[in-house]
């Protein structure tokens, strides 16, 4: 199912010693300080941390939207720019960012209509089938303005899956939704991903969300943004809603919260 | 929730649906015949007309009565029609040129910032020069034909189109832009799929300012070349010079009608094209 033919054997994401600072020379703020991280093929990695820890900046560097001051990022063994040229990166931004003048179906078709050169030789998905599997089959001909926030965000995720990218970058995709809706979307994504394994970098500020979805959780500290620790989530897959209630889940939650707490304490000390 | 609506609706039907929902603006939907829609407007116009008549009856040398204006209009339909067409042509040709030129320059400026830096100061200098002052100079340069009228009309339309289009092209949704950039979409693809359709609310806001200005431009250009060419603006100046007030005011009324027609037509087109947009953006 996952057409990953064009990925080098050392596929996935490799972030090595990436640093980034912003601002004028006399008031420079270091947002990322020597961050290294790998995401293997088919691995789901969440990045969590207090605001200002640079998690969104890290995602933008991996997406090739921001250039790092130093360090390297490779995707499937290629530099980010080359990976973008091959359409190897699927981005799900914080807001759905659907085009309001296109139907949901035409929004999902958009990635197939640009940079067509990179369409050759890959397992492109059928947009309407994909939308159906995201539970949006009945809404395909509607316009984004007619959809609820959760449905819009699902369409945005479908838009990122449709061209079969090697890696998915998701920047707090559910943060704008209300809690009940958020949980529903999260489980929907889990379901879909478990049968369509891709390397995912998932930025979030929700501990249960990170645990439920991830293989590994990267905890970042702020000012400057550094990786504080990496926590393995060894809950068996496939996971489902019932896992929230297990002891293993609660134990992990305590561990992650403890790490976050430590990171925040250190920042205030 | 909206998901429960009929699902087999075609895109076209959906589009109309949204347009209607949007037009209703969240308030309870009113039918066109609801008295609240037209009675207040009608009262305002009636009061204004009455005041006009009161002044006209007691000061016949200041303004003519409405019935005198109307009588003059219906007595000379061919004369007014010919002049109306001349002004209409100036407005249409001039406005179309100004709109296209303004939009085209906006596209170039949006894509190449250096062009904006190079050209914008000159554009501003030209635009702060009173159009009334430029018009006579253009008549000297291009004669009493249609050309100076086209140029003046195009000039007044050009600036609001440029500024609004530029703001619209720059206002592309940054998150959607991020998505397209990660896909390595070309500049052209980003323009085609995001910037161009996305700037339309601004373009229509610009047109709302530009089209009434086009009528002003055409009329002013005709003032300058009065007595030589036809046109409602010329009719105003020549008849006013002869103190033929019914003709003056009938021409003014027709100029006003022309503006109303253009703005109404624009609102109609906007509703068709921009059903997806919430409201009118404000450029700078």
Automatic annotation (TrEMBL), chain A:
GO MF, any single term: ATP binding
Superkingdom to which the source organism belongs: Bacteria
Annotated PROSITE patterns: ABC_TRANSPORTER_1, ABC_TRANSPORTER_2
Residue ranges occupied by any ABC transporter domain in the UniProt entry: 13-247
Classification via SUPFAM superfamilies: P-loop containing nucleoside triphosphate hydrolases
Pfam family for this entry, one: ABC_tran
Coiled-coil region: none
UniProt keyword annotation of Secreted present: no
InterPro entries linked: AAA+_ATPase, ABC_transporter-like_ATP-bd, ABC_transporter-like_CS, ABC_transporter_ATP-bind, P-loop_NTPase
Name listed for the protein in its UniProt record: ATP-binding cassette domain-containing protein
Organism: Agromyces kandeliae
UniProtKB/TrEMBL annotation, chain B:
GO cellular component: plasma membrane
Record carries keyword Cell membrane: yes
Membrane topology summary: Multi-pass membrane protein
GO-annotated biological processes: transmembrane transport
Pfam families from the UniProt entry: BPD_transp_1
Transmembrane segments: 37-58, 78-110, 122-144, 150-169, 202-227, 247-269
PROSITE patterns in UniProt: ABC_TM1 (PS50928)
Keywords: Cell membrane, Membrane, Transmembrane, Transmembrane helix, Transport
Cell membrane keyword on record: yes
Record localization: Cell membrane
Record domain ABC transmembrane type-1: where: 84-270
Listed InterPro entries: MetI-like, MetI-like_sf
Family, per entry: Belongs to the binding-protein-dependent transport system permease family.
Protein name: ABC transporter permease subunit
Origin species: Agromyces kandeliae
Organismal lineage: Bacteria, Bacillati, Actinomycetota, Actinomycetes, Micrococcales
């Amino acid at each position: 199912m996952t057409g990953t033919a064009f990925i080098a054997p050392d596929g996935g994401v490799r972030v090595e010693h990436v640093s980034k600072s912003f601002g004028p020379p006399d008031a420079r703020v270091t947002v990322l300080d020597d961050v290294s991280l790998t995401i293997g093929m088919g691995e789901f990695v969440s990045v969590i941390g207090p605001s200002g820890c640079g998690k969104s900046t890290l995602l933008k560097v991996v997406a090739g939207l921001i250039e790092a001051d130093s360090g390297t990022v490779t995707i499937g063994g290629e530099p980010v720019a080359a990976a973008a040229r091959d359409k190897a990166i699927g981005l799900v931004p914080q807001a759905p960012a659907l085009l309001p003048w296109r139907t949901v179906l035409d929004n999902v078709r958009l990635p197939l209509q640009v940079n067509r050169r990179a369409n050759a030789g890959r397992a492109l998905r059928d947009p309407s089938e994909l939308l159906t599997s995201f539970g949006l089959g009945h809404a395909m001909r509607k316009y984004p303005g007619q959809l609820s926030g959760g449905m819009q965000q699902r369409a945005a995720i479908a838009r990122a899956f449709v061209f079969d990218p090697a890696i998915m970058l998701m920047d707090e995709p559910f943060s704008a939704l209300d809690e009940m809706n958020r949980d529903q979307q999260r489980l929907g994504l889990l379901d879909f991903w478990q049968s369509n394994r891709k390397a995912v970098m998932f930025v979030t500020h929700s501990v249960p969300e990170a645990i439920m979805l991830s293989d590994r959780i990267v905890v970042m500290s702020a000012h400057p943004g550094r990786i504080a620790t990496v926590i393995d989530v060894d809950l068996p897959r496939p996971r489902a809603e019932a896992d929230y209630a297990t002891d293993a889940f609660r134990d992990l939650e305590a561990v992650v919260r403890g790490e976050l707490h430590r990171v925040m304490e250190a920042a205030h000390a | 929730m909206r998901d429960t609506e009929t699902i087999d609706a075609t895109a076209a039907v959906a589009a109309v649906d949204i347009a209607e929902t949007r037009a209703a603006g969240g308030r309870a939907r009113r039918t066109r015949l609801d008295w609240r829609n037209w009675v207040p407007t009608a009262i305002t116009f009636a009061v204004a007309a009455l005041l006009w008549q009161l002044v006209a009856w007691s000061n016949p040398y200041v303004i003519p009565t409405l019935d005198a204006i109307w009588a003059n209009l219906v007595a000379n339909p061919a004369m007014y029609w010919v002049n109306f067409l001349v002004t209409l042509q100036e407005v249409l040709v001039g406005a179309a040129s100004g709109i296209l030129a303004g939009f085209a320059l906006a596209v170039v400026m949006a894509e190449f910032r250096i062009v904006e830096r190079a050209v914008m100061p000159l554009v501003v200098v030209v635009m702060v020069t009173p159009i009334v002052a430029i018009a006579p100079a253009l008549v000297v340069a291009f004669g009493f034909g249609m050309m100076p009228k086209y140029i003046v009309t195009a000039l007044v339309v050009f600036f609001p189109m440029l500024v609004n289009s530029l703001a619209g092209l720059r206002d592309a949704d940054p998150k959607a832009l991020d998505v397209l950039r990660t896909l390595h979409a070309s500049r052209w693809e980003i323009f085609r799929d995001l910037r161009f359709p996305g700037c339309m609310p601004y373009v229509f806001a610009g047109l709302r300012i530009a089209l009434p200005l086009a009528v002003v431009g055409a009329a002013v250009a005709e003032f300058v070349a009065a007595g030589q060419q036809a046109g409602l603006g010329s009719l105003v100046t020549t008849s006013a010079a002869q103190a033929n007030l019914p003709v003056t005011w009938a021409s003014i009324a027709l100029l006003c009608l022309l503006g109303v027609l253009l703005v109404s037509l624009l609102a109609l087109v906007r509703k068709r094209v921009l059903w997806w947009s919430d409201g009118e953006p404000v450029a700078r």
